[in-house]
Amino acid sequence: MVESPRARNQQGQIWLNVASSCHVLPEYVNLDNSIYFRLEPLLPILARVLSPAHVTNLERYRAAQRRATVVVHDCRRRLPYPDASVDHILCSHFIEHVYPDEAGRILADFYRVVRPGGTAHIIVPDLEHLVRSYLGRVTSADEFVEATIFSSPRRPSRKYRVLEFLGFEGLRHRWMYDLPGITRRVMDAGFQAADLASLPSKAVRAEDGAESIHVAARKPRAGVSPAPG
What we know:
By secondary structure, this protein is α/β, with parallel strands linked by helices.
């Protein structure tokens, strides 16, 4: 991507919200591959043939594009930014939707595009929280399995299977993490631990409490080596 003036926010920085879905943030460039973003220009036509629920979703994505800068991008692939050009990356509830080898490549690419001293904020569901809820009988076995989103209580529809075949991720989880697991992956990409309170996205999904893990990370400045793993 060739940087344009609108890529920089009011702080004069480039912040990315990777795999934003329709949860866009105005100060960020929001990247997502949702089919709803791709179909949104056809809303006047599709509204005549789609169900009310699908039309509502298209309207949500149209509203998102009007609230913030949106780039339609398959976030499993290399980010369309030069090396060391981004100040901050937020990636919320996406890494669990890709396979672990893909997650490693994605995090390495985050490291590539973040400038030295820049930051990343990775948020994933907490597997340990789900397990504790099940073992404490807060949730049933059915609720536990459904919460992992590894499967479905009923056979997916044909449209679901077609979308999955076409590579639209976000339909189910491919892997899950506890705090040590996701932290290790982020640090393996080259980042160092950072203070969450210092990040511009510190309030994102704060309402999740123990349900989500937040990993705050910083790319070392030149001459500063990452701490041993």
